[in-house]
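Reviewers asked in the last cycle whether our approach scales beyond single polypeptides. To address this, we selected a multi-component target totalling 1452 residues and predicted its structure end to end. The input consisted of the following lines:
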Amino acid sequence: MRWVGLLLMAGESVMCAHEGAEHSASGLVVAETACVAPGVWRLRFGVPEAFTPDRLRERPPETGGFTGLPEADAPPFELGGIWCRVTPSRTVVYVPCDEPDDTIYGFGLDPTCYQQKGLRKRLTVAASVIGQTGASHGPVPFYLSTRGYGVYVDTARVPLVHAARLTPKSAATKGRSDTARPETSEQALYAAAHPEGLPEVVFDLPGNSSGVDVFVFAGPTLREAVQRYNLFSGGGCMPPMWGLGMKYRTYTRADQERVLAHARGLRAHGIPADMFGLEPGWHTKAYSCSFVWSEERFPAPQEMLDALRGMGLKVNLWEHAYIHPTSPMFEDLVQRSGDYLVWGGLVVDFADPEASRIFADYHDEHLVSMGVAGFKADECDRQPISDCTPFNYPYCSSFPSGIDGDQMTQLYGYLYQRSIYSVYKKRNQRTWGDVRATTALAAPLPFCLYSDAYGFDEYLRQLLNASFTGLLWSPEVRAAGSYEEYLNRIALSSFAPQMCVDAWFIPNPLWRQYDRGKNERDELLSKEEEARVAGRMREIAGLRMQLLPYLYASFHRYRTTGLPPVRSLLLDFPDDAALREIDDAFLFGDALLVAPFLGTSTTREVYLPKGAEWIGFHTGERIAGGATVTAEGRPGDVPLYVRDNRLLPLADPVEYVAADTVFDITVRVYGEAPAPFVLIEDDGESFDYQRGVYNTVELSWANGEGKVLRQGGYDGARYRVVGWTR
Amino acid sequence: MRWVGLLLMAGESVMCAHEGAEHSASGLVVAETACVAPGVWRLRFGVPEAFTPDRLRERPPETGGFTGLPEADAPPFELGGIWCRVTPSRTVVYVPCDEPDDTIYGFGLDPTCYQQKGLRKRLTVAASVIGQTGASHGPVPFYLSTRGYGVYVDTARVPLVHAARLTPKSAATKGRSDTARPETSEQALYAAAHPEGLPEVVFDLPGNSSGVDVFVFAGPTLREAVQRYNLFSGGGCMPPMWGLGMKYRTYTRADQERVLAHARGLRAHGIPADMFGLEPGWHTKAYSCSFVWSEERFPAPQEMLDALRGMGLKVNLWEHAYIHPTSPMFEDLVQRSGDYLVWGGLVVDFADPEASRIFADYHDEHLVSMGVAGFKADECDRQPISDCTPFNYPYCSSFPSGIDGDQMTQLYGYLYQRSIYSVYKKRNQRTWGDVRATTALAAPLPFCLYSDAYGFDEYLRQLLNASFTGLLWSPEVRAAGSYEEYLNRIALSSFAPQMCVDAWFIPNPLWRQYDRGKNERDELLSKEEEARVAGRMREIAGLRMQLLPYLYASFHRYRTTGLPPVRSLLLDFPDDAALREIDDAFLFGDALLVAPFLGTSTTREVYLPKGAEWIGFHTGERIAGGATVTAEGRPGDVPLYVRDNRLLPLADPVEYVAADTVFDITVRVYGEAPAPFVLIEDDGESFDYQRGVYNTVELSWANGEGKVLRQGGYDGARYRVVGWTR
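The resulting structure, written as structure tokens, was:
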């Protein structure tokens, strides 16, 4: 047992052991502070717990990416202002938040609120919203201040966060030296602890009786703080190129024939699609899962997979990590799982590397070997306490690895992703998956979050909030009550990190009927109507395919510089205070502002940020920053605005990305002095780019002429620039 | 530091210190078991925490009361089946619950559910309901099994309880010796821990890293288990006799003149009332509170109090224990309070006896000395996490006494009551108060819980659930949408432990207008309508006054034998399985079954328990047990059924109980061989009864003749038996 000496602020000393700590009466500990990356400081209070996102991280920090960021020699604020109590029941971290006009963003995927100041958050993984508490599929104890920094508390406990909403007692006694005079040194500590009674962001970590690491990320603005956080996480993920096309998930009870019929339908209508998802019905047992093909529905799965591959479709399989007793994995995992069953299945102890390996190896040998390109990791979230359905293992679960049940519920989705991802890394094959829960430091993992939230406002808020904390969000299109709503949903999804139509409860293809009830009753659209719907889907997905090389380059920047490809406007325009409230528009890459139509509407107001001029993508109209304009269009159109002085590469749309696809690119030139744009060219599906096997294709425009500069170690050519337009 | 040796089941040893514990990997500890009262066993796991209901109890167990109970030499089940893990993050208690047809009741005041088996409870003090989680004004970690026993886990943490709803892994591996075979001794422990994969009631106590006492209460039936629990708590409370009359709380903005006018109105209409409550407006500051009379509204408070006393009304003052900076208590409490303010006021560290004394002394000297007879301790509950109003201090609060913030939120109402109660005990004067939160072992405290729940079903469920766990519930009548609803509410309240009309937001007296909006707009009833309403109120409260001696005797049994005066039918008829679902009728004393009309209805079905015959109180109709009958009546009537072979003493109604009130009693005789009934006679307001200064007045009936046997040490006579009727 190694002992670490810590100093109490009042000069008393306390000793902390690696396993558990002795506690002083006040619990106050001082930090060991270290600069762990450029502009990133770690404050270590006590002895951090063994199971945290940092300790179970996917990748080391992406140190190379920091070089492009502004230098940050000094912390963004006095780090001594952060203090911590470690007691037998909890660890509490206090971060100053005393600027009245400061606002706060982050805390993960919360669909209910954008600004976080003044709220009480309980950052638990949850399948549904609980007020504005941050209960979500991606709760993250990381926040950003508009003063231009970020703070991350590295924990897998369920943090209760009081975001500048508590009033310390010292606020009432301030200036009253007679009453505020402490009677004991213990009271002196408390007085020192809430200086001046000013607001703080308080992280209460129940069950952590040991200590915690707190990380502070410099700016100078929110954008760089986000980049530093993502780079510290290991950099963003790099999807395969095909992952940027459309994903169509089909009916859960579909059999092999129906699967193939739906896939052929996509192709017959020329609707671009790269991925085809199978839902629970492919298992012999689901809820819990067998991970074995149902012979009844899928007598020849390899044949079907080959046929889908022949249509250019990568297959994604639904599953969850609760192992049915009939699963071949059961025997190997029974001693490496929690002490309670979920839906009668084992809860895998993913914190045990051997359990994770067993799970991965099964996927490798039995599913990925057949050609399965990705997985949808469902149900790794948690029902809220008010719902009594028999969903989850309890917080008091035990696991052989020693991870606590509450920590496991927070980390299950994250560790599950890591297990799946390990299969593909070993094969030097990129994957692109879906996941229902994740946590902090998740940026390197190539999975998109999805949820049951279905309001347009929730879609958008999650899209924006995700960009603050290293998450990717995939708003699913499942069904719609009208033609207008259906097309607007598809259109919004086409500008998300992943475009996904999830028709899991819809027996007939969605383009034959978007209304759920009618679809179930086989009340299908007329041929003309179907052609109209499919035509619009083709156009909408087609526009995404046109933007695919541009998006792929944006993801590469996410990978190497930590800048999210789809993000809040606040990150690029930190000085425009009007944006602090605007959560219904976002950036898609560097050049495009996206302001989707909501619900069934085909008109809306769009605020264009100050600090740039903007050109309507469809209209060509030039608009000054700071103005609000009215956008109009057809259902399924998306009001788009291009930032002035940008180049926008547009590809001729393809139906899907094949290994040998070459994109014909027309470059749109906006403004007189456009910044160069760098496309990324590689095989699009292996990890070879990590050892330099890729090209940068720099597009630039000067003196009325476009230039293409290709550099790098990749032999092939993905892009052919066929024209330049103004 | 004293060390206590504990044995691990597998033979490893672990040492637990009084302050904190070292933990084995599994955390398993074995109990030290002791029989602490007849039919009450304590299992001590590890080292219990310092702040628990048992350690902060109001009274020692009422040992004398156990003598009347059946002997219980052996525990109701094998206590070795209860096991416990103590880890650095939590203590977990597992209690077998493996009888398929067993049902479970208890867990406190939950208004949403009656049966508890299969539910997930989070027993937090809360101002409003959260699903069926047990969040309530009186969460109690005590439950009853229909097998005839009770289990109490002594904690002030917020327990997460899984009531026989989790499936241990061993359920899947049962009989599969190949897979269930443990590889390590640690796994052997786990296998032993969930024997046979059967359901358990699991108490997860987050933040308790030290240990816990578990108490088991023998039956043989639920009734005796409840009695043992209440006797162990110290016995039930004994209200002053006047506490059993009606309480009328008046408009919060009323001034002295309006208060007196409303009081005179009660008397002018002859509506029985014993208590008159003032709401926040009496303070110079409320939210937080000053505890100083507002000169503006109350220029002569002593005069007003004397005038109310002259009308026979005991005054009850609203307050909450958050101390405004202008309060005279502020200076004395500032160093004895938590580190955060609530509504700008101090949170009193009631776990510090000196803080509790300061708070009590102020009440004694400044308010009780003026003649204030009781207090309404409001807002000591807590807003649920989903509500972001700035209600409460956080779980991570610190207090000088060392109590944790989460423990304090669970105990605040309980300790608050104890402080107030101490004032009256010192004065040898009983009190009767209202409180918004309490916890386990609260039976001795003379306070009734109230809440904002306003559905008739919630009223009734709380009334019943309260009786399982030593709580008293006072369903408030605030306003109503119709004449029928208003009278039915009043009527239901008249059969609760406390009858209370709380008109705090109603400017004019409720009998002048029960509709809130109209009352606020001064749209009052006509004189005739008013007379009709007041007349019905007089009748309804009058019936309660007729039953007052009967109720007073029932409370005395609560005090001495632990049997709740108002209670679930299950307690008296444990063998009638039909009652397990019936939560809309209850017992009022031993003889009366109460089945109130719900909402605006004036008819309902009533199930009469097997094992007795019943006689309609109003109709005289004789009904066999096990039958369901249809009751009908006017709005404000309450269907009542008298158990056969009981004596029911009815007093001539008085408007209020004075020190010298003598009740003229007519005894109703039901059946051929009625059991004797014992009235309790004393001064009705001091604690002298505790040293024998009271009489038992035994009423009996034999051979067509009634007999009165008065015995005891009280000189006066409260009751004059004036007649016997059949």
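The first strand of chain A starts at residue 3 and ends at 7. We regard this as preliminary and will revisit it once experimental data from Aim 1 are available.
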